[in-house]
Amino acid sequence: MEYCKKIYDPDLLRDILIDLRQSKKLIVFTNGCFDLLHAGHVRYLNDARSHGDFLVVGLNSDESVRSIKGERRPVIPQSQRAEVLAGLGCVDYVTIFHEPDPFKLIEKIQPDVLVKGADWTEDKIIGADIVKKRGGKVIRIRLTPEVSTSKIIRKILITCGNPKERLC
Q: What strands lie across the sheet with 137-141, from one edge to the other?
């Protein structure tokens, strides 16, 4: 269970990252719900990882996802979403945060590089000011068109409504 060695409480992770930073390692941070992991997520995370030495993924907790996406989400519980993310070779650390946005987590772990999707303008990226104040970079990554968890869920629901296609 190697993946379990990648999932940390934010306070413990902060201490690990301080040690890595003292060794001149670049810490990259991104965050999201990662509810139904798909090819767009994997491409995004691999690209994010290429901008530094270690990739930290801040994962929205179940309560956080519900506050953002509504009561029917997440589909997959946070412990399983964390496990799936930790199983990816490009992800070095996973930590769960409970607020609707990662501001407090970014403040705590002080990443060198902050990555978000290109659908966010830099002035709207939460934590960008914290990272840039320390001399870090904010990078926007182009998303995979036509791939999203919401679209996958809609497709499943439509398919389940069609008795000729028994996906469910």
A: 93-97, 54-60, 27-32, 113-117, 137-141
Q: Give the integer Cα–Cα distance in Å for 142 and 69.
A: 22
3 phi/psi in degrees, rounded to 5: -60, -30
125 vs 129: CA distance, rounded Å: 9
Average per-residue pLDDT in the chain?
Answer: 91
Section 129-157 average pLDDT: 88
- By DSSP bridging, strand 137-141 and strand 93-97 are unpaired
Please give the pLDDT value at position 11.
Answer: 97
pLDDT value for 163: 53
Residue 2: the pLDDT is 59
| Nearest one of 68, 128, 54 to 98, comparing CA atoms | 68
- What domains are there in the chain, each with its CATH number? 2-143 (3.40.50.620)
Q: CA 16 to CA 63: how far, in whole Å?
A: 26
Helix (H/G/I), strand (E/B), else coil: 57: strand
The count of other CB atoms within 10 Å of the CB of residue 150 is 11
**Residue 168 pLDDT more than 60?**
no
The pLDDT, as a whole number, for residue 143 is 84
